[in-house]
Design goal:
about 190 residues; alpha/beta
Length: about 190
């Protein structure tokens, strides 16, 4: 079983579920239709596009989309900067691009984890060049100690230590994504 390879659980399934609801509420407040008390929401008719970075963000994006009250469309990109390593190389390749034009749309880039920030910085430049009305980032996890490039992230689920983690979309050699929590692997798994 995959659970047997896990050394420790950093963030439980229950904590993740609660954080998704919390982040969805914040996004709804910022992008949702005007509230009943007249508080600012986004302009009617503008589209919120969630752009998920495959494969890891698929889990975050699906749960987030279901928790949102704001209407959204879903788009996916696949990029590579890790290969089979446990740290980003900073060299980004687009493996799958967006299927639609995001020009004029409010775009929310959905990430599973922000490590060095190198891949995210590249993605933001790439997406900004496509002329969205706005571009923000939501990330389930962030490693403040590992950040090499300062990137503004509007919505962050959890800050975690600079350790390699798996679960809830995160993998090691394409395994462990389906674990419902975030944890660390036993050291012998890497050898």
């Amino acid at each position: 079983m995959l659970d047997d390879d896990v050394q420790s659980v950093l963030i439980s399934e229950k904590e993740i579920a609660a954080k998704i609801i919390e982040m969805a509420a914040a996004i709804d407040a910022d992008y949702g239709l005007p509230l009943s008390d007249g508080a600012a929401g986004r302009e009617p008719g503008r589209e919120l596009v969630l752009v998920g970075v495959l494969k890891g963000a698929g889990f975050v994006m699906a749960d987030l989309a279901r928790a949102l009250r704001t209407p959204v469309t879903l788009e996916y990109m696949a990029v590579s900067s890790y290969g089979s390593s446990t740290s980003s190389s900073g060299v980004v390749r687009i493996l799958k691009d967006l299927d639609k034009d995001i020009s004029g749309a409010d775009v929310l880039l959905v990430e599973d984890i922000i490590d060095s920030g190198l891949t995210l910085s590249w993605l933001l430049r790439n997406l900004q060049s496509r002329n969205p009305a706005s571009l923000e980032v939501v990330a389930m996890l962030r490693k403040p100690e590992a950040i090499a490039v300062d990137v503004r992230v509007r919505y962050v689920g959890f800050d975690i230590p600079n350790v390699f983690v798996v679960g809830y979309g995160l993998d090691y050699a394409q395994r462990y994504r389906q674990l419902p929590y975030v944890g660390t692997l036993r050291p012998e798994i890497y050898s």
